[in-house]
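Honest question from a wet-lab person: if I give you the sequences of every part of a complex, can you actually get the arrangement of the whole thing, not just the pieces? Trying it with mine:
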Amino acid sequence: MKPLEELIQRWLDNELSSDEFRELNQHLQQPGARARLQREFEFEMELSEAVQAVKSESSSVAAFQSIQDEPNSSGGGRRLLSILNFWRLAFSAAAVCLMWWWWAAAPAPIASLEAVTEAVRIQHNGEWKGNLKGRVELSSGDTIENLGPSNVIVVYANEPTRLWLSPSGSMTLSRNRQGTRIELRQGTLAGTVGYQPNGYPMVLLTPHGEWRTEAAELALEASVRSTRLEVKRGFVAFLNRDGDGTVMVQAGHLAMVDADSKWVVSPLIQEPWQSQDVGEVGLAGTARLEGNQYIVQGTGRGTRVGDNSFHYVFQRLCGNGEITTRVVKLDAAQGTASAGLMIRESLKEPSSQMSLMVHSSGSLSFERRPKLGNNVDRVTSESMPCWIRLARHDDFLTGFKSIDGTNWVQIGSQFLPMSRDVYMGLAVTSSDPAHLATATFNPVSARSQPPILH
Amino acid sequence: MSYIHGLVRDPQAAEDVYQEVWLRLANQIEHGSIQNQDGWCRQVARNLIIQIWRKQKSSKVVVDSTLLEFVDCVDKAYEENLSAEGAWGDRQRALNDCVASLPEKSKQLLLLKYDESLPILSIAARLRQSSSAIAKSLVRLRHALMQCVEKKLKLLELES
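Yes, you can. This is the full assembly:
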């Protein structure tokens, strides 16, 4: 058997054969051998660090090679070799100058843009370029405008940072000695910020402030009116435009800042619940949990129009099930706001949906809307707080209301075929894209079992 | 880090694994404390490293029972023998001095191996020597550096 140290070195040099591997494993059955292995691994890393430390003091490899290349033949052969060496050196010098000029003129790429379509534009050195496809390299100072219908992906070089820029998104990326920066003018940037060098966090700028992180999984949404940040992992430090203090946004939390620099940080809703805007809403909606209360804000045009838009807090439902809540409060900034329960087929519009909505005007409506068709409403009067339940049994959807959450009255039952997998949840709309309505739901329960029809 | 470095050997890939482990550790700590942090990190790193090996088609590394047995041994080695953190700084400084005092040719060999990360065959071609000669030179160099570091640490101990 070969000595242990030799086998470990051959592993570190990637030279180990299968038989040698088995010998190494045999050696490593002994505790002393394992201690030796750990020491060798540590030494290997320390040696790598030491070489970097003295690198700048060493002469170049080329100079070393020139020592090896010293001519050792005699007479005319030596002279010819000298001439050849001179020209070789001259060529090398010219190539180095050319490469240095090219490197100085062309900044090294810091990232690449993936899934590029013809609808994406990139500004590089002040010049806009379009009609790009596939993968494009990005340098510091480049601006990306995503005018297409799908996300584009920014993949940073030499680190595991990967971010998606949404349609209508616009961002500029840069890197200097202070670290990496992204200016997000509008749109959503979501994904993973890989671990940044110690003391050099990634800086994300939006119209409302500065967001810094050393590593996080996040979604940052910016518009002229507000910035919204969801942190799923890691943490992000927020410094608003006025620069008066730093707020830490931890994993599982959401931060919102508006144009007046008013900010709020609250916990995100937990899985299996998710939240998003459906349709063209205007101001972005939000959802947060305060104890057992779901506080949901939404804008949009409503849930009874042809092209619905609202904020939706939902989870998946496969087959039969029901969702129950008590609508505690509904604040409409202006106009008639609505909040309630919805079961729908798709998160995109148009979609088949059944909803049971409480309105700020003091009514309760049971709304059936097939994907292509008109709404059918059953409207009754109702005041808040009120208990409501929406249940699905095969292709029938039934609405219930209750005064106390125990004794239920059926409002109506409608036939609306949808696919087996649907979404059920809470819907909130202000019916005004420019103003948010806020609804409070407490409690909320959802189950995917056959309902008991009263 | 030496655990990752020793198993992965490619400095860039090792750095990626290291960053990913730290990101996951930061996330895990947000949700609650971890009892055996070193063990947890090693487990995460191990899984990431095995994924990397599986993706590397051109590598000599074949993910089979022999390799996994080796990784188990490495895990056990780190579980049994945690290095004293306090000594690390002194060891690194001593090693830096030892490398700095090497003859120029030895330094160049180390640069090719640890800075340019060239395989043995490429180094042999560059220096116009056989690969076995290069491998032996590296073994002798490492051994000499280890002895140099031990001497310096002993001197340091006597002075303190």
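Two things worth pointing out. The helical segments of chain A are 4-12, 18-27, 31-54, 61-68, 75-105. The first helix of chain A runs from residue 4 to 12.
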